[in-house]
Design a protein that fits this description.
Order of helices and strands: EEEHEEHEEHEHEEEHEHEHHHEEHEEE
CATH architecture of the largest domain: 2-Layer Sandwich
Radius of gyration: 54 Å
CATH class of the largest domain: Alpha Beta
Helix content: 25-40%
Largest sheet: 5 strands, mixed
CATH topology of the largest domain: Nucleotidyltransferase, domain 5
Strand order of the largest sheet: 3-2-1-4-8
Distance between the termini: 97 Å
Oligomer: single chain
Number of strands: 18
Number of domains: 4
Length: about 425
């Protein structure tokens, strides 16, 4: 549960944000005495109950706000200069100030450390304080959610003073304080209202009858809009809630409180990291246990089906062996060479008077040498037989005389066709 408080001169406005539900957003207003904050703390605790984080927005009435002339230094160096000699820049004497400044310009908010310290000690009994900032900063942050354009806000203060606040994109651009002189107010508003800039008014303590008189710009000013269901009087408190968890460089914090907040954030981050590591370890342990249980279950199921499966595999292997043997026997029967049939075919195809002198074979490849009365027709005669193919002469024929007759020699190669 997060709570944002705007500490005004007479009124505290509170905005409480929950995580979910119908009562996620709750607003509260109560009167208080700034010199006796304990009473307001007790009333808030009674009406709001347990609070997780607390953010405070200090009203402009309690603050010094100036655009100082400082050299272009880092924020830490500016803070050191202002802390050493606050009398040079603010109307105080021998008083310690708490500063809120930023590196981008020389706009500085300051609060009396004694007053702010009393408030912080009281409100820390309500919940841990995570942020303290000027209410113009909180108001600009909240208004930036609804209107991020450059706007001017006229803020009613005590003693008929008016604070002229220039904001844009959720940031404070400039702050000025104007007295009760309408001409001075008109000049200040005219200096800011360029390019049809919108002007809003913010009465003190929700005073509905207040409207500044100061030229056309002030006369056309209208009430602040509601933002995310939050009414205009509570926008500063709402902006303080939105600032929780942000950077502390521009906050209105004493040094000791800033160190405590930083320490709490580091511890929270460390606890988050440790929690994530433990959750990851528990998840891995649970996953390992689930895997072990699954493996044991699978082992038991495998053991149940292993016996029948081995029998099926043995039958499958036996069937494969029989199939291979059958295929081998069929191949031997269909592709086997028959030399006897080949010799019988040669006897049939050779003409009368022809005889062989040599027959050589290497598997299906045969070579025959011999003599015949006429060698030329031999190739054609042998090719007519279905047992022979690729018949051709290996060398040219030659004539010779044997036993008083003329013969022609031949050397023929052929291929024996396997029996079908």
């Amino acid at each position: 549960m997060r709570l944002g408080l705007e500490l005004g001169p007479d009124v505290i406005r509170a905005v409480r944000l929950g995580r979910w539900g119908r009562n996620r957003l709750q607003t509260l207003e109560l009167h208080w005495d700034p010199t006796e904050p304990a009473g307001a703390v007790a009333a808030l605790q009674e009406r709001l109950g347990q609070i997780g984080k607390l953010s405070l927005a200090v009203d402009l009435s309690f603050l010094f706000a100036k655009q100082l002339r400082l050299p272009p230094l880092a924020a830490a160096e500016k803070r050191r200069i202002l802390t050493l000699e606050p009398e040079r820049f603010f109307p105080v004497r021998a008083e310690e100030l708490v500063l809120a400044l930023r590196a981008e310009d020389n706009l500085v908010f300051a609060a009396r450390a004694s007053v702010l310290g009393t408030w912080l000690a009281a409100f820390e009994t309500l919940a841990p304080i995570e942020l303290v900032e000027p209410s113009p900063v909180s108001l600009a942050r909240a208004l930036g959610r609804a209107d991020p354009t450059e706007t001017t806000i006229l803020m009613e203060e005590k003693e008929e003073r008016v604070g002229v606040l220039e904001v844009g994109a959720g940031r404070v651009r400039q702050v000025r304080r104007i007295g009760s002189d309408p001409a001075e107010l008109a000049a200040a508003v005219a200096a800011t209202v360029e390019g049809a800039r919108q002007v809003y008014i913010r009465p003190l303590n929700g005073n509905p009858g207040w409207h500044p008189t100061g030229g056309a710009g002030a006369a056309s000013a209208r009430e602040l809009p509601s933002v995310a269901g939050v009414a205009p009087p509570y926008l500063a408190a709402y902006g303080a809630v939105l600032g929780l968890g942000g950077e502390l460089d521009e906050a209105l914090l004493p040094a000791d409180l800033s160190r405590r907040i930083t320490g709490r954030r580091r511890r929270s981050l460390l606890l988050g990291v440790v929690s994530c590591v433990l959750a990851l370890g528990f998840s891995l342990f649970s996953l390992d246990g689930f895997r072990s249980r699954t493996e044991r279950k699978l082992d038991a199921e495998i053991a149940q089906v292993r016996g029948p499966a081995e029998q099926v595999l043995a039958l499958e292997r036996q069937a494969d062996t029989l199939t291979r043997e059958a295929r081998g026997a069929a191949a031997m029967g269909t592709g086997r060479l028959d030399p006897v049939a080949g010799l019988a075919a040669l006897t049939r195809r050779l003409p009368p008077g022809a005889h062989l002198t040599a027959l050589r074979s290497s598997g299906p490849e045969w070579q025959i040498d011999g003599y015949a009365p006429e060698a030329a027709p031999l190739v054609a005669r042998l090719e007519e037989d279905p047992l022979f193919e690729q018949v051709r002469f290996l060398s040219a024929t030659s004539r010779t005389r044997l036993n008083g007759r003329v013969y022609e020699s031949f050397s023929i190669t052929l291929r024996l066709v396997p029996a079908p």
